[in-house]
């Protein structure tokens, strides 16, 4: 956020109705308006470091609210509330130590307190004309590491909850591990499929752009030809033969997106049974024996999955063109 030299940070805050009071009352009112314990991770990080700057100047005004938001962010990163006497081994980097700071954040061997402190250090060094861009890269890496830790903590909590549910259902540890492996395999297949479709479409789109560029330059009488044009017949020969039209190229990506949306809306139990039946090829009786439930329950969950696929999954293409009529008698 760019500011004029004579403009205070308090002047950039949104207008709120605040009763007359002492210093910092307007900022505290904005914090009350923005902060929610269930707010998105990115917004929580932004709010945390905004209040961090204010707290450095006036800890007696913003210290309590800063501690509350800091506890929420740390709890998301490590899955527990921080202890009162927890040791904070904070890193100390001078502005010229950007190389060491980059290696530190890329190593991943840091505590939650250290990555938050390094984020704050990077923020203070952004105004340096010579090395500000290097600290901007460190700032982005710190943010990515914070979000990665939050995601990993949530995934671990979800897995523990699934393990407890499976243990209460009487499943053995081997069965629980096999279930996690099946879910991870499903996720890897979907991600690989979407990545393959995306790379294919980007490559074909680049080829078409180069072709259009060459045609335009030829029409304009420009003798300069992109040297990459000579490689297009070799690189995209099969692609041009198979799918050339935009409508056909977008069908595959639409199919993947709709299929992913349909499976995402299924409950974990229904999705697992549907994948075991359609992907792994198990019969209803085999799935019932594996899950420890009746065949009627397996059939019922398969019907639920089929309804989700029919509602949210890929739809059959609608016929186009005029209808063919038979000969008149």
Distance linking N and C termini: 78 Å
**Structure class:** mainly alpha
The chain-level mean pLDDT equals 70
What portion of residues is helical? 55-70%
Low-confidence stretches: 1-21, 227-231, 233-249, 318-329
Give the biggest beta sheet: none
Q: How many DSSP-defined strands?
A: 0
Proportion of residues in extended strands: under 5%
Tally of distinct domains: 2
What does this structure look like?
This protein has 329 residues and is mostly helical. It folds into 2 domains: 9-149, no CATH class; 173-312, Winged helix-like DNA-binding domain superfamily/Winged helix DNA-binding domain (Arc Repressor Mutant, subunit A, Orthogonal Bundle). Helices cover 67% and strands 0% of the residues. The protein has helices at 25-34, 41-57, 59-78, 98-107, 112-124, 132-168, 173-219, 232-235, 237-242, 246-265, 268-278, 284-291, 295-312. The longest helix has 47 residues, at 173-219. It is extended, with a radius of gyration of 29 Å. The relative contact order is 0.05. Residues 1-21, 227-231, 233-249 and 318-329 have low confidence and may be disordered.
Q: Could you give a short description of this structure?
A:
With 329 residues, the chain is an all-alpha fold. Helices cover 67% and strands 0% of the residues.
SSE layout and pairing:
Elements: H1 25-34, H2 41-57, H3 59-78, H4 98-107, H5 112-124, H6 132-168, H7 173-219, H8 232-235, H9 237-242, H10 246-265, H11 268-278, H12 284-291, H13 295-312
Helix pairs in contact: 2-3, 4-6, 5-6, 7-10, 10-13, 11-13, 12-13
């Amino acid at each position: 956020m760019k500011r004029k030299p004579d403009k205070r940070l308090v002047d950039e805050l949104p207008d709120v109705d605040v009763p007359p009071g002492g210093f910092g009352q307007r900022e505290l009112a904005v914090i009350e308006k923005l902060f929610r314990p269930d707010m998105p991770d990115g917004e929580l990080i932004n709010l945390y470091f905004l209040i961090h700057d204010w707290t450095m100047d006036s800890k007696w005004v913003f210290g309590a609210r800063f501690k509350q938001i800091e506890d929420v962010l740390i709890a998301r990163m490590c899955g527990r509330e921080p202890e009162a006497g927890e040791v904070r081994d904070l890193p100390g980097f001078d502005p010229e130590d950007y190389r060491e700071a980059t290696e530190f954040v890329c190593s991943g061997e840091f505590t939650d307190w250290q990555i938050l402190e390094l984020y704050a250090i990077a923020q203070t060094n952004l105004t340096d004309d010579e090395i500000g861009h290097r600290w901007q890269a460190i700032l982005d890496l710190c943010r990515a590491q914070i979000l990665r830790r939050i995601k990993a903590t949530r995934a671990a909590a979800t897995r523990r909850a699934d393990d407890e549910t499976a243990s209460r259902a009487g499943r053995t540890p081997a069965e629980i591990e096999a279930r996690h492996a099946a879910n991870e395999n499903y996720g890897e297949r979907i991600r690989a499929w979407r990545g393959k479709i995306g790379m294919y479409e980007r490559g074909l789109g680049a080829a078409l752009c180069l072709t259009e560029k060459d045609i335009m330059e030829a029409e304009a009488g420009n003798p300069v030809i992109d040297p990459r044009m000579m490689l297009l017949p070799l690189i995209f020969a099969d692609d041009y033969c198979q799918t050339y039209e935009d409508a056909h190229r977008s069908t595959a990506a639409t199919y993947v997106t709709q299929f992913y949306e349909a499976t995402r809306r299924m409950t974990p139990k229904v999705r697992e049974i549907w994948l075991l039946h359609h992907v792994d090829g198990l019969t209803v009786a085999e799935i019932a024996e594996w899950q420890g439930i009746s065949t009627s329950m397996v059939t019922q969950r398969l019907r639920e999955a089929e309804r989700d696929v029919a509602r949210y999954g890929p739809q059959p293409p609608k016929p186009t063109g005029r209808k063919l009529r038979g000969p008149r008698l």
